[in-house]
Amino acid sequence: MANTAQAKKRARQAEDRRKRNMGQRSAVRTAIKQAVVAAQSGDKTRAAEALRAATPVIDSMARKGMISKNKAARHKSRLNQRIRALPA
Predict the structure, then answer these.
(1) Among 9, 1, 82, which Cα is nearest to 42's?
(2) Can you tell me the distance from the alpha carbon of 14 to that of 60, in angstroms, rounded to the nearest whole number?
(3) In this structure, what CATH number is given to the domain that contains residue 46?
(4) Which of 9, 28, 31, 44 could form a disulfide linkage to 54, CB 3.0–4.6 angstroms apart?
(5) Element (H, E) at 69
(6) What is the pLDDT of residue 12?
(7) What domain count does the chain have?
(8) CA distances from 58 to 33, 47, 81 (A)
């Protein structure tokens, strides 16, 4: 348990950050999952639209340091690969 005022404030800040990070991490996972589900459905236009919606979310999290730039690039690449493999 925090004993000093500074430690108590740090504990409050850490909790606020943890909540914010959880929400942002969830948003990235949701965007990726929506793109994957759209790709699995076989509808190329819907899948491409889902990728277009997921890309800025993934990039934003990479800019903020939530995920690494390489991980963001890997997710985008794999999603794009799935969509390009779909029949037109």
Answers:
(1) 82
(2) 21
(3) 1.20.58.110
(4) 31
(5) helix 69-85
(6) 95
(7) 1
(8) 12, 16, 16
